[in-house]
């Protein structure tokens, strides 16, 4: 219930109590502290509803100004700890710490299929191989769509290694690569077609 409706734990207990009262059941709902202790060890596995056909992985881009569907994304989250509280209470410089969350989204179902949390010092390009590594090996990946920031050898090699088609626009100053890998050959074909 907590995950389904996006409620806090105390709200969830009240919601369940109301539901039980509405259906006329005289059951007791565990209190907040009991539920809090139990949920620490609760493992929830939400199964993926498989598709017929290959997976088309999207890597959405946070800053893109286009309206097309985006697939692999990274977004930043601010991390505040004792330093931020101390600075707000007593003044002084506030250290800002960021973490990045990179997502791989199924283009058809819009379910998050892969996620990677990195520090703010890691760029976009190194992450897609790790996202693809989270997709089971037996599952066919048809395509990976991403923005030009992912136009790197490692990304194209990881995509080609899964037998997928890369839908990544070349950078403005793109030059052909030496076709020593499948990813480089596929990327050179994209570059040739885009000029």
UniProtKB/TrEMBL annotation:
One protein family per Pfam: DDE_Tnp_1
Any one Gene Ontology molecular-function term assigned to this protein's record: transposase activity
Domain Transposase DDE: 2-65
A GO BP annotation: DNA transposition
Domain Transposase IS4-like: start-end pairs: 70-188
InterPro entries: Tn903_transposase (IPR053172), Tnp_DDE_dom (IPR025668), Transposase_11 (IPR002559), Transposase_Tn903 (IPR053520)
Transmembrane segments: none
Listed PANTHER family: ISSOD12 TRANSPOSASE TNPA_ISSOD12 (PTHR34631:SF3), PTHR34631
Protein name, UniProt field: Transposase DDE domain-containing protein
Source organism: Loktanella fryxellensis
């Amino acid at each position: 219930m907590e995950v389904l409706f996006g409620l806090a734990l105390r709200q969830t207990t009240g919601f369940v109590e109301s539901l039980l009262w509405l259906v006329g059941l005289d059951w007791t709902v565990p209190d907040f502290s009991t539920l809090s202790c139990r949920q620490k060890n609760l493992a929830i596995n939400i199964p993926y509803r498989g598709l017929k056909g290959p997976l088309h992985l999207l890597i959405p881009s946070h800053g893109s100004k286009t309206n097309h569907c985006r697939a692999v994304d990274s977004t930043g989250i601010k991390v505040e700890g004792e330093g931020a509280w101390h600075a707000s209470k007593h003044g002084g410089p506030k250290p800002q710490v960021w973490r990045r969350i990179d997502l791989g989204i199924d283009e058809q179902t819009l379910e998050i299929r892969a996620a990677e949390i990195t520090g703010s010092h890691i760029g976009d390009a190194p992450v897609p191989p790790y996202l693809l590594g989270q997709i089971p090996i037996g599952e066919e990946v048809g395509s990976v769509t991403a923005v030009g920031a992912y136009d790197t050898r490692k990304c194209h090699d990881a995509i080609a290694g899964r037998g997928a088609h890369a839908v990544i626009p070349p950078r403005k100053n793109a030059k052909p690569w030496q076709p020593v890998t499948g990813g480089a050959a596929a990327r050179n074909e994209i570059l040739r077609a885009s000029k």
